Amino acid sequence: MAKSILINSFSLCQNLSSPEKFGIDAVGDLTDNENLYFCYVVDGHGGCKNSDILVKNFQAYVLSLKDVFAQLNNTTQDIHDFFERLTENFYIEHRGKLRPAAMSILMVIFSQTQIYSAHLGDCRLGKINNEQQISWITYPHNLAMSLNNQTDPQSIEMILRSSSNDNIVTKSFNTKKLKPLSFKTLDIEKKSTYILASDGFWKLSENDIKTIIYRKNLSEVSSLFDDISLWVISFI
């Protein structure tokens, strides 16, 4: 597949500068598999020194897997194993180094019919349907979500955007201890557009999210308050 069926797909990334901010956001992909397409967003935690270095090293490490990904089989088990080996081997290379450093990761592999995601932290996978309705497929690993007792998706989203605990990440990638990934597998809805986003994007208002996606430009919104990494994947 590589990128052949991904029509109107694009990525955006913006990093703000401020004193005592150490993290950066980043995006990347791998396209050398005939049947699969891999992309990711990553958000280096701004309060942890060396997070920017960890993010840059992750980008380089993913690129080093180009040949491995090219041979990856299109099965759920093989794809989950790929996600796990990627994070485990990257962790082994950095174990005990660059401390403190931490980042949130969302990795997604698209096949012709399915989506496979794996994440740590507060980057999320979402979608916009053909009626321009936004829904979020994965939930963040943060304290607001851990304390949530709501079941209605709209109520959960309100809590995730308004809680004072929304910036406290409870499970991320760091070089001290490797945490287990959260996996999701779902069928592709060909009339939907899929979103991979760091919290700087998904916490924006619905209007701002749509403005950026449909105009493909972060500068269209003046109220950006955080770093942003974003992939928009469309099949229509």
Condensed summary:
Helix content is 28%, strand content 27%. It is of the alpha+beta class.
Notes on the structure:
This protein has a single domain, classed as PPM-type phosphatase domain (Phosphatase 2c, domain 1, 4-Layer Sandwich). With 236 residues, it is an alpha+beta fold. Strands 2, 3, 4, 5, 8 and 9 form a six-stranded antiparallel sheet that branches. A five-stranded antiparallel sheet has the order 1-11-10-6-7. It is globular and about 40 Å long. A hairpin with a 5-residue loop joins strand 6 and strand 7. It contains seven helices and eleven strands.
Number of strands: 11
Portion of residues in beta strands equals 25-35%
The value of Rg in angstroms is 17 Å
Task: Tell me the name of the CATH homologous superfamily.
Answer: PPM-type phosphatase domain
The number of helical runs is 7
Helix vs. strand class: alpha+beta
Mean pLDDT figure: 91
Tell me about the largest β-sheet.
6 strands, antiparallel
